[in-house]
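ingest -> validate -> predict -> emit
validate: passed (alphabet ok, no gaps, 153 aa)
predict: started
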Amino acid sequence: MSKFKKDGGRPTPAINTSALPDIVFMLLFFFMVATKMRDKEMKVQTQLPQATEVEKLEKKSRLHYIFVGPPLNESFGTTPRIQLDDAFATIDDIQQYITLKNNEKDEKEIPFMTTSLKADKTVKMGIVTDIKQELRKVNALKLSYTASKEVKD
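emit:
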């Protein structure tokens, strides 16, 4: 005969879930600390020029960014390129980009929108002038140049 006896009437005990909220919050905090938030993937090098008078802009939500500089990947060449969001662009794409970004915003905020030009210090002024001309065509007249604060010895 069998030495083990089956107790068919005894139910299995419930799983203890009292530590579950602690584990969930630990995972949440871990990912909050370990995750790096990045708006845009940089495809151009932007070593900023230095300036003596630097002001910090208040509302970053009211900015359109235009990046200009030599590509990070040398397969795209060494001449300065324009980057809008995460892609390379030409001078002709700037009007469409600003119009598209303005359409995403509330109509009341459009007069307060500023275009931030983040250009490498080796970029020639001709490209910057061409960008400014295109911005004038779409009435984006508020322009901000991004620079780093000059370090005094």
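Strands lie at 50-51, 63-69, 81-84, 87-89, 114-119, 143-145, 148-149.
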